[in-house]
Every structure is written in structure tokens, then in C-alpha cells.
Amino acid sequence: MDQRGTIMKTYTIKEISNLFQLPTSTLRYYEEVGILTDIARTDSGQRIYEEKHVNRLKTICCFKQTGMTISQLQIFFSYEEKEQECIDDILSLLTQQKENVETQLAQMQKAYEHVKRKLHYYGDIKQALDAGHPVPAWDTYRNRTYTT
Prior knowledge:
With 148 residues, the chain is mostly helical. Helix content is 60%, strand content 5%. The chain is built from five helices and three strands. The protein has helices at residues 13-20, 24-32, 51-65, 70-81, 87-131; strands at residues 10-11, 40-41, 47-50. Strands 1-3-2 form a three-stranded antiparallel beta sheet. β2 and β3 (47-50) form a beta hairpin. α4 (70-81) runs antiparallel to α5 (87-131). It is elongated, with a radius of gyration of 24 Å.
């Protein structure tokens, strides 16, 4: 029960593993490196995860998807523990991460455009071969843009 007398939902390591599609070894590693903390245990030593761990894992997974490293996560969570003292550091770290994500998105957009050009190019080659026509040259596709 929590401080208000409400029964808290708890999870086993297997349930958390399934919920986040992470190996149990990764969950144990996150605990070992200190980014997933305060995990209670049963008398037999099994981990007991709570809603606060689910929320922390949502943050970890989100930040990992943006390319944040374990050491950056450790720094972020250490700042978060002293939120008011470290607010400038938190903002700086998150601003840098936002800029990294913007760079990744721009790179992915360029790659996506290239894939679309190649798809159209090879689709047109297939049509030309099927119809017995000459195949198109890549140069006519190199700078084209496509909406789909």
C-alpha cells in the first residue's frame, strides 16, 4: 500500500521484461549501473517493480531511442535527484539531446528521400523490362523528390 492506503500495482521482472520488450539481463544491468533504483525484493530475493519503475523505464527507453548513452542517463538521473540545484545542467543536457535528435531526423529524412528515389527508379526499370522498353538512367532520378 502507498501512503494513502491505496494498493499499489506491482510487477515481476518477467512482467516488466514483457511490458518493455527488454531482456531481464538489461533490467538487471540498469539496476547495476544505477539508472533503475529502489527496487524492493521479496524474502526469496525476487525483484518487485512498482509504477515508479515503469515511469523510469519509459524515460530510459525514450532517451535510449534518441541515442542517449548509459553514462548520459546516469548523469541525467543524478541531476534529477537534485533537480533545483542542477536545473541548468538538466536543461543543458536535454537541449544537447534535442539537437542530436534534430540532426538524426535530418539525416533520416535525407536517407528516406534517397530510398524513395531508388524505389521509383527500380520500379520504373521493372516496368521498362516488362514492357520491353529501354531502362531509365539513374541521372534522371538523382535529384527528384517524391511525396510517396
